[in-house]
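Researcher: I'd like a structural prediction for the single chain below. Treat it as a standalone chain; there are no partners to consider.
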Amino acid sequence: MSIEIEVGLENAVRVPRVTEELSLEETPKGLANPKTKRLLLAAGGAVLATIAGLFIYFHNRESTDDAQVDGHITPLASKVYGRVSQVLVEDNQAVKAGQVLVKIDARDYQAAVDQAKASLLLAESEARSAGVDVPRTRENVLSGTTSADAQVMGAQADLARAQATYEQAQTADLAWAQANVEKSEANAELAKADLARYRPLMEKGEISKQQYDAAKANADATASTLKADQQRLAQAQRNVDVAKAQLDAAKARVEQAKAELDSARANVKQVSMKAADAQAKIAKVEQARAALEAAQLNLSYTDITAPVDGVATHKQVEPGQIVQAGQGLLVVVPLESVWVTANFKETQLKNMKPGQKAQVKVDTYGKTFNGHVDSIAGATGSVLSLLPPENATGNYVKVVQRIPVKIVLDPIPQEKAVLRPGMNVDATVITD
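Model: Treating it as a single chain, here is the predicted structure.
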């Protein structure tokens, strides 16, 4: 192949016409082309770098799209029966803890509180009265016992005196009277015998009339003395009988005093009975106070308040509605305390543990939020389900199970995103 090069017309004279022949080879094709080799090497290096980067990025990451936002769902129910007088909240309205949401007609429960207060006042009055009766009864019983003791001692002293009087009348007085009678009888018999001897002598004139009269007078005197001594003996016998009667009366008084003392001592039991009655009245006071507290508690249940800050939703109550105890009215959902429950395959949990960093992508916002693994469930989701599976012998098929993992998110500003329980998310845990 020959190429002619013309340098220029104006130089044609001075420059000789040169004819140069260049020998050119054909460009190699395919992998023999150096440029292609360079491109392939560069592409291979990029692919290897990409694969290495992806491996480095994904080798310690476990992800799942079987995840959702969870939270504390707080259902509110009525604790008492009644008619709804007011509903102070709308569906999906934000509420604060302690805010009254529903009011139940409280008139019946207010009347029960008033009745319980009256019962408490009555029980307290009876308890005070019983408390006063106890010391008064104790004083009365003590006084009665002391008096009965004194009566017993007095009766026993009277008995001792009556016993001494009876013994004296029965021995000394009666014996002395008996001896006097016997003496007087002897003197009377002697005087009578002398008179009988003097009468014949007087009739014979052997003695004077004066001597006979003196003997007669002596006989009369001794007879009178005998009669007097016999009367004193009869009186002594009567005195013995009187002393015996007085002794028996003294014994009876002693027995009566002892019986009164036993009765007074038995009255001590009244103190215990009064004290027991006072304790029963005090117990009634406590019972009435407990009934009042229960009535006040039921009255407080007529105002149904929000237990936490959140959003009131799923409202199922209207004014005028009759509600039963335990009937659900609405639900309060605290949106600031939510977490993510991610169901990872059991094969993904080998290196997973609490405290590891996590990333959650929320479908609603298309954003990713940071958090950490809080805890791992103690059993698989199927075991924790309402009807756990029972693997029959002979047709068992091994299925990879999923275990719930709780992921707590870092605080998210409300203006940036609001996560609601039930939202679908993608969860990724960065294992160490």
